[in-house]
Amino acid sequence: MFRARFTRRAVLGAVVTSAAAAAVSACGGSAPAPTSAPAQPTKPAAAQPTKPAAAEPTKPAAAPANVNPPGGAVNPPGGAPAATAAPTVVPVQAAAGQTVVRVMNRNDVRYQKFMEDWIKGFEAKNSKIKIQNEPIPNDWEQKLTAALAAGAAPDTAAVYGHWFRIYMEKNQIVELTQYVSKDFKADDTNDFLPGQWKGMQLNGKQLAIPQYININALYVNKDAAKEMSAEIPGNDYSYEQMLAFITKMHKKTGDKVDRFGFTTGLTDDGFIRVISLIWGQGGQINPPDDINKFTFTKPETVKAFQWIHDIFWKLKIGAVTAADMGGLASQGDAFWAGKLGTMFQGMHFFGVIPEGLKMQFDVLPPPKGPGGRGQRASMDGYIIAKSTKAADQSWDAIKDLTSPDVEKAQAKAAYLIPSRRSGFDTYTSMFPDKNVKAVLSTTDEARPDPRSMWNNAAPTWNAIKPINEELFVVNKITVEEAMQKMQAAAEKAQKEG
After folding, report:
1. 223 Cβ contact list (under 8 Å, min separation 6)
2. Cα–Cα dist 380/418, whole Å
3. CB atoms within 10 A of CB 124
4. From CA 95, how far away is CA 98, in angstroms rounded?
5. The whole model's pTM is what?
6. Whole-angstrom Cα distance, residue 47 to residue 146?
7. What gap in Å lies between CA 298 and CA 306, rounded to an integer?
8. What does the pLDDT read at residue 28?
9. For the chain, what is the largest distance between any 2 Cα atoms, rounded to a whole number of angstroms?
10. Cα separation of 131 and 445, whole Å?
């Protein structure tokens, strides 16, 4: 009987995909464009330094169509390597007395190998549960949103970013508070990052469990630093030291830029990279005690945005377009190719280090300013769909997937930072020649980016995004004008929804 019910749900899930565009349009979301993945990553090994290939970009008048994709990556949610083909789902055969639990999770090759191993171990311990493994499609936002609305979603799914807030507000997911109270001890809940754990709550209800952590870091091309005689700052560097360093990493021959000194995700949805540089300088897009009020015009916020803007448009040491990066659309690809001196990006790029990488690189935590490190934590975690007929069994799956031992196995297999702090040593041991421990030491103050927390998150960002592009992508308006416009647009979107 369950097989028959599952088959109808699967068919409905396929049918509702055609309605996805309308569903997402209502939410104001957009999906990442699937492209080919970087070369199969491998654990970075010590390599002989090599002089990076000289790029020959010039800084043309930028246009939104040419700007670096969000996060600088071509990857699906959370920065996982893109799948090379549309993921397939092979229906499982459930025996009498077994319950099938559909689990939608990351789709890259390494993660799917982890899932295969996890399923074997989980089913061996839970003989009455069969896991239906459903790799997440690249256009998961449309498909999952439509399936949740139609009551045809997988039982549990890995969700990312502001979509948590959308599904929470629509009452489409199961409250997990009672499960947490029953099965998690204080040591368990305290093992998760406070900011990420609380970010998955709404009105005091726990609605999701963290899957992994993505935080921000300054990636440094050590070969370029050696070439330019630029001393790499220590972990406690200031904003002044950062600016001096990235300026020195910029390489020009006459008026021609050979290698830009810096880049970051200027058009990231919800400022997921630049928010760290805003917070660290004491700026606040929202007051800490009220996420749905806005403080774009606060002097410290204006000053922080100006600091970032100057890097790209006054000092002109920051790469904005793909042309600035030698024609490479991904910031990561440009960095690995030696066409950037530094990039301020998420730690997910450790999962897409090209095999056989020659260049030497390292990472620094965000700089220290009057607002601290300003560290941002991703919102990556598991939900249970309200339409599930197997909530208890789905919880059993989530509980196991987020257990300390499984999180460590996930880190080893997929190069993802565990969402439990007890797994940090496992992750840092994978990169003994990198400054990873110093970056992870900033997680205690990490908090979700604003868009992941706003009410009416998608309409609010959709109102702000064009202004952000006017400011950073085409340099059409001043920082002061942009802050005034963003303040008004955000306030209006919050009221109108």
Report:
1. 49, 50, 51, 52, 338, 359, 360
2. 11
3. 8
4. 6
5. 0.83
6. 47
7. 12
8. 32
9. 75
10. 36
